[in-house]
# Entry
Amino acid sequence: MSDRPDETADIREAREAPGPILRKAPGPTSWFDVRKRGTGHWAFSMNRITGLGLVFYLYLHLIVLSQLLRGPAAWHGFLEVATTPIFLGLDVLLLAGLLVHGLNGLRVALIGTGLVPDRQKALFWSFTVIGTILLLGGALHIAGSR
Amino acid sequence: MVAAQDVADPVRTFRVFRFAREDGPSRFDAFDVPVSAAATVLDGLRHIRLHLDPTLSVRHSCFHASCGTCGVRVNGREALACVTAIADLSDGDITVEPMANLPVLSDLVVDMAPFVERFPPEHPLTRTSERPLSDASAYVRFEDCIECGLCLSACPVAATDDTYVGPAALAYAQRVLEEARGGDRDAILAWADRDDAAWRCHAAFECTEACPSDVRPAQRIMALRRVLTLGGSAAS
# Structure
């Protein structure tokens, strides 16, 4: 007796099975794949990276503030570490993250509410220039605060 | 003097995504294709199918960016194969893949049903053919948009959220607000005013970058949001 009916069922099942859905990268990592992508995608990616970084900083900041509970000596000890060049460099990095996230948030608000939907690239580059100037000024100020 | 026809066309290597349900895992096949100065990616794919491997699945029709059926990814970018000149591509292999975020049927052909099903239930801007296909209850196309699906493939949000209706459907909704032609604006606004619709877009603008028909889906989504933000008053 032939087993052809089973073979037919197997073929039919194989043909009816859903095909693969290709993704540019696995899961959310595709958000950060900016290769051959435009300014909008760069802004989209940077907003996520800085957003995650700022959330991390928020918790780190609360942990650092908890040093106050351990008395003035512990706090002053931390301040000595916090004014080292490495920490000041991290302050500049924090400022960069705040500027990227804040200015891009303003950009998204302006285009996302339909006020200037056709000016996303102009806003991207305008805020990039503004952010760079503010970052340079802020970095000089932080470096001089030591 | 050498006659023009005696000069051999340069050869470019196509790396083509291959998948067939019966053949197991997907792979890339390499084909050396002679390309003329004006050749397009679709010309190269048709050469492969005609002369090198007749089993290659490629979908196309009009050859001039009107039908929207030959959408693929060329070297990682969404493009209509029929109007993508090989001479405009960088040197090296030409990698051709099916569109992302839609199920692959075979090789470069994706299932467009999940794309069309994302649109609002009412389509007042569609035109019904005067000569419908015998086996189809309706044969329609959306104005302006050529329904190629490149915007959905390019969208980074659709890459991680299959419930997102996507740029084309939202651009269509905004078009209804511009020119309702008897369509129900309130129904369209209610359809768009959802987490997986107008508010899911994160303004990466990749849909607009990818669109070959200048629909500018991202700008339309932003305009749609403005109407929603103003409580729909601009639609009336």
In short: The two ends of chain A are 90 Å apart (CA to CA). Residues 41-144 of chain A form a domain with the 3 helical TM bundles of succinate and fumarate reductases fold (CATH 1.20.1300.10). The helical segments of chain A are 4-16, 39-65, 72-82, 85-112, 120-144.
